[in-house]
Amino acid sequence: MPQARAITRWEEFYGSTEVVRRYAQQSRLQAPERTIFEQRIGAALADSALLDLGVGGGRTTANLARQCLRYVGADYAEPMVQACRERFGGLIAHRGLRFDVVDARAMPYEDASFDIVLFSFNGIDLVGAEARATALQECRRVLRPGGHLVYSSHNLNWLDSRRGIRWSGLRSYVQTQWFWSRMRRLNRAAWPIAQRDWVELIDPLAGGCNYYIRPAELVRQTLAQGFEDVQCVDLLGREIDDPQQRAQLPDAWVYVHARASR
Ligand SMILES: C[S@@+](CC[C@H](N)C(=O)[O-])C[C@H]1O[C@@H](n2cnc3c(N)ncnc32)[C@H](O)[C@@H]1O
Prior knowledge:
This protein folds into two domains: 9-155 and 212-260, Rossmann fold (3-Layer(aba) Sandwich), CATH 3.40.50; 158-202, no CATH class. Strands 1, 2, 3, 4, 5, 6, 7, 8, 9 and 10 form a ten-stranded mixed beta sheet that branches. The protein contains eleven helices and ten strands. A hairpin with a 5-residue loop joins strand 8 and strand 9 (239-240). Helix content is 36%, strand content 23%. The chain has helices at residues 9-14, 17-23, 31-41, 61-64, 78-87, 89-95, 132-142, 156-161, 170-186, 215-224, 243-248; strands at 49-53, 70-75, 98-101, 114-119, 143-155, 198-202, 209-213, 227-233, 239-240, 253-260. S-adenosylmethionine binds at residues 10, 14, 23, 26, 54-56, 59-60, 75-77, 80, 103-105, 120-123, 126-127.
């Protein structure tokens, strides 16, 4: 018998028809994902077993599933997994793709069974501050030594400045004002954030908690969970090596590429 699990707000949010529909229409890789897969992983992708964690509606599947040897998409929101199975039915039949309902905090996969684990578009920020290390340890466990971890997190620097916001008309202005005033109201206890390395805030739209972290702390946490060669990549796809630059990086989220320690 499967164990009964508490349904979180996020699981509910990502399982809702409208959100699934929106995610299942997406198919473009983000610039940092392109940099990491083309330049840092490169030819190794062709021989790899890839676990696409928090796969959502299959945005990354559309780009990566044909390029690797074995592809598994996993998400804890069953309607997302179902949408992927429908969207990629042809590839499932011809290339043996798989989509599993799986929680990143306790995965059913064997140790060292993947060459690449991707947890794209800030999915890890939804697992909760306490379980974050567990999720990273799970990624480390299922990766072979030297395997590639690719993931992203909301950047706490961006919350300081919100420089990433682009105004595009009155409607978006009003929506953004509403979002930030509610964000502050819901998270009064968390401010001021200037001295923090990370913070967990209630999301005004979904009601779940979202994690924001400084790039230097993101690197530190990744190293602490058994990874090496950790690199940050910004939203334009540029590798950010310099600690000074990392400290000032204003992007809304930051990608990380790391290797499982050998
Ligand atoms: C922001 S969406 C990104 C979806 C997709 N990766 C993309 O980039 O379009 C985050 C996804 O992570 C999934 N997710 C969140 N926490 C998870 C967990 N603990 N285990 C598995 N999936 C999770 C959500 O259900 C959702 O589909």
